[in-house]
Amino acid sequence: xxxxxxxxxxxxxxxxxxxxxxxxxxxxxxxxxxxxxxxxxxxxxxxxxxxxxxxxxxxxxxxxxxxxxxxxxxxxxxxxxxxxxxxxxxxxxxxxxxxxxxxxxxxxxxxxxxxxxxxxxxxxxxxxxxxxxxxxxxxxxxxxxxxxxxxxxxxxxxxxxxxxxxxxxxxxxxxxxxxxxxxxxxxxxxxxxxxxxxxxxxxxxxxxxxxxxxx
Length: 215
Fold this sequence. Notes:
Elements: E1 2-5, H1 11-22, E2 25-28, H2 29-37, H3 43-53, H4 60-70, H5 74-79, E3 81-84, H6 90-98, E4 106-110, H7 113-125, H8 135-159, E5 163-167, H9 172-198
Parallel strand pairs: 1-3, 1-4, 2-3, 4-5
Helix pairs in contact: 1-9, 2-4, 7-8
């Protein structure tokens, strides 16, 4: 599964609960990069270290390659995963798609800009501020996601037919119920498709997104 949304909209808290409740692996792009940075022998990790030393922006192709590599680890293969906060652009979605990384479900987290800014302001007042919560930096990040997310949603709707919505305005428990229900529906669809394929009966491929190897 993928879960994306605006910065500081409660993605981490929801992903942690989904991971705990469903027993799937919680993945974040920055954690994946940090993991591979510790490997002195990985070729792509060397490229990553080189970019960081030069103060360069990490190339999307490199991030996608490392995410793809992480998805091959046994814990993910056996239990599934929820990827938080990535992709953030439609180009990144296309690069993941080219690698064959197609989520079973994609969730977009609905949250108003005002609610995000109020939450960030409360955190700053509590003395827990970071540079990411600087009003100017936060506004820039919100603006970037506002520009890119409609394109991502359009791509997912057109190619995967699996876009769902959660909302930070609701409780984590309510969102968990929705995610669990949506996941159950998709798994039921896949089971029905498997039955129809095994019996040689036709099925409506529009109702579900399958990779070639899954078919």
